[in-house]
């Protein structure tokens, strides 16, 4: 997936500043395609050079002027070309720090790994609550044509969060069992 194409797609809804785009990302697609404000501004510059977006300055009273971007006809063509082109692979390559930490977990105390996994569970439960809020916002939106697509995308986020939550809870149970076995083994040896 491409951040420039995500930006082009979001600009099909309405003209936005870089800050507006970041806000839109955070309220809609950040759970499967996050972006930093610096990345958004960098790519907006590239998109403008390619003439896929244009910009204009909107003066504001008491605040700095806003640079607002709009998608061009060429930008719309590029987005449609990208959307109609089959991806080379449907496999998402993910760098998963939590899985890496678990893989290397024997290097730290078991109680520390259990503690980290409990924090992971808490965060995933918060993610599900945030997805609930996004689903509610989508249901109340005026974007009737988009709702079904947005909710289907959101469903994938739910499934991933639910799977990660289940995995973490299983890890905690297994680590607790392993901790008990180690403790019993220590007692037998002494």
Automatic annotation (TrEMBL):
Domain (Transcription regulator PadR C-terminal): residue spans on this chain: 94-176
Span of the signal peptide: none
UniProt keyword annotations, A-Z: Coiled coil
Keyword Coiled coil assigned: yes
Highest taxon of the lineage: Bacteria
Protein name (database record): Transcriptional regulator
Domain Transcription regulator PadR N-terminal: residue ranges: 7-79
SUPFAM superfamilies cross-referenced by the UniProt entry: Winged helix' DNA-binding domain (SSF46785)
Coiled coil ranges: 158-188
Entry annotated with the keyword Hydrolase: no
